[in-house]
Each structure stands twice: as structure tokens, then as C-alpha cells.
Write a structure and sequence with these properties.
Blueprint: E1 14-17, H1 19-22, H2 28-34, H3 43-53, E2 60-65, H4 74-78, E3 81-89, E4 94-102
Antiparallel strand pairs: 1-2, 2-3, 3-4
């Protein structure tokens, strides 16, 4: 079920988004981060993790990617959602990818 993983790079589309939109209160990223059914994550957990990973939000270059370029996200797209973001911190020269797939057990 889902293997082999297939992808079509020509279908990949990324949209540049602002730090303000990415970290918006009750925005898509926060809700996806906090939505995992088996682990309760609080707003404070969300803020703490992001402060550790991304202390200088003004330095970030963020892209939100579609997830229909691969069958790897099929389960999440059928259930509660599948999300993919790439974040580059220009100051730290650090590249982070956040991949959240919400599947109802």
C-alpha cells in the first residue's frame, strides 16, 4: 500500500510565503503541528520548538509545496491533510524541511 513510492518532479510546485503567514496563530502550520491525534501538543510546545529551530524569523525564506507530486502523501490527502514546507535560514545557512501527514488511525 503506497510502495514503491513514486514521484513526478514536474508536478512539484512551491509557493513562497512570509514568516508572518507561516507562523500565523491558528494558521495551517500550527494546526497541522498540533493535530497529531496520539500526542497532545500545546500552543506553548509549538512556540518553543519554533523558537529553537527558527530564532530569527526575518531571515527565513519559506516555501509551501503541493503534495500531489508523489503517492507518498496519499493517506494524508485522503484523511486530515498532507503538508510540506521548506525553510531556509539565511543567517544560519540552515535548510529545514517540515513534512506533516495527518492520517486518522
Amino acid at each position: 500500500t503506497g510502495f514503491p513510492i513514486r514521484l513526478n518532479p514536474e508536478m512539484m510546485q512551491g509557493i513562497k510565503i512570509t514568516s508572518k503567514d507561516f507562523f500565523a496563530e491558528n494558521g495551517e502550520y500550527e494546526l497541522a503541528f498540533r493535530s497529531y491525534l496520539q500526542v497532545h501538543r500545546t500552543k506553548e510546545d509549538f512556540q518553543r520548538v519554533n523558537q529553537l529551530l527558527f530564532p530569527e524569523k526575518k531571515e527565513l525564506v519559506i516555501y509551501q509545496w503541493n503534495t500531489d507530486f508523489t503517492n507518498s502523501y496519499n493517506g494524508g490527502r485522503k484523511d486530515d491533510g498532507a503538508y510540506l514546507w521548506s525553510i531556509y535560514d539565511r543567517k544560519k545557512q540552515q535548510f529545514t524541511v517540515i513534512d506533516i501527514e495527518l492520517i486518522i488511525p
